[in-house]
Amino acid sequence: MKTxxxxxxxTRALVPPVPDDGQLSISSxxxxxxxxxELNRDLSVASIAAFSQIMSSRRHxxxxxxxxxxxxxxxxxxxLRIAKEVGLNxxxxxWSEEAYTLIKENAAINDLTDKVRICLGNANALLHKERxxxxxxxxxxxxxxxxxxxxxxxxxxxxxxxxxxxxxxxAHLNSGIRKYSAVPLNVEYHSEMxxxxxxxxxxxxxxxxxxxxxxxxxxxxxxxxxxxxxxxKGANKTDKCLKDLGFIAHCTKxxxxxxxxxxxxxxxEKCELCGEETSIAGPLxxxxxxxxxxxDSVLVQLTNRELGKKEYAVKIVELCRxxxxxxxxxxxxxxxxxxxxSAMPMEELLKELTGDGFKASRTHxxxxxxxxxxxxxxxxxxxRRFR
Length: 387
Ligand SMILES: C[S@@+](CC[C@H](N)C(=O)[O-])C[C@H]1O[C@@H](n2cnc3c(N)ncnc32)[C@H](O)[C@@H]1O
Hints:
Blueprint: E1 4-8, E2 11-15, H1 38-59, E3 67-70, H2 77-86, E4 89-94, H3 97-109, E5 117-120, H4 123-129, E6 132-137, H5 147-153, E7 154-162, H6 165-168, H7 173-180, H8 190-207, E8 211-221, E9 224-233, H9 235-242, E10 245-251, E11 257-261, E12 278-285, H10 292-303, H11 310-322, E13 330-331, H12 332-339, H13 346-355, E14 360-363, E15 366-372, H14 376-385
Parallel strand pairs: 3-4, 3-6, 4-5, 6-7
Antiparallel strand pairs: 1-2, 7-9, 8-9, 10-11, 10-12, 13-15, 14-15
């Protein structure tokens, strides 16, 4: 196979050449490598390093005693970076013979041949057979067909990517329902909708194995969503975790929304503000998306490392760290357009909201949006005050 050499963080890898004739796409190359996902991998290195360090100090473990599996490895770049830059005990797996051969070559050029285990086989078979402290699922499109096996395998942390944002965010409604057993809505907070629909599915998959999840750091960036979830075993913990599943009732006329926790819950059919019929999204995850202390540890990891996408990665984690734990956000531009007035500087709007006694923050989901516990009526009053 024709290859070129790339470097991400402290790791080198042979990957397929850049598609140049417009006919060959990244996904049609014999082994997959997407340079756009370097940011995702930089964040993975920092997040998994932060989590492993917490584990190692709580349980007096060496980093090399913590097991990590990159179940869908392709070139191996993700798992090899975890082995080389974090020092975990790494297993890499892919069912493609070409990928398997390339992973071996990439392990060799990083002096990792004796330090990592490379498997050729079905990810689901491997994950149903073996247990790992950290399980990483980074597939083409949807992760859902790997979630049962990943839930069975995982002991401490599950890291999951989904790139099928159209089904997740409600743009391809039937596909979203088929894949995620939930109804997404294509609304202005569709990126958050996608993340919460995926998390809802993961919580239900883990629950079948009596495991509960605690989101540590979850983000929606460009064309994908990514979640780092601490996992704990136990029926009581799982029952408690499932209480954070529920539904969102959204009014497509005035954009007011209400949040309803629980799987057996009464959801109002009419908008409390304008009386129009609401659309219902769910079941989805309504609990927190981030753990503040964990985000601080990820920031420390990012700061102390040489990473290609460090600046962007830091910005995402900082925004997530400071984001309010409130489901859904409002897009200021959309609201002011409806009112026929111009938008105000975001900092001023946040100040006005907090000055009126509400909580308010920016959100990593969108630069023109904010999160608040104020209702739509109060938000509109503030915007009108500044017309
Ligand atoms: C999106 S790529 C992985 C990208 C990689 N994680 C990275 O960061 O560059 C998905 C890989 O999963 C492999 N794959 C798909 N289904 C699989 C399965 N059931 N078992 C094992 N490998 C699988 C494909 O061959 C492909 O190499």
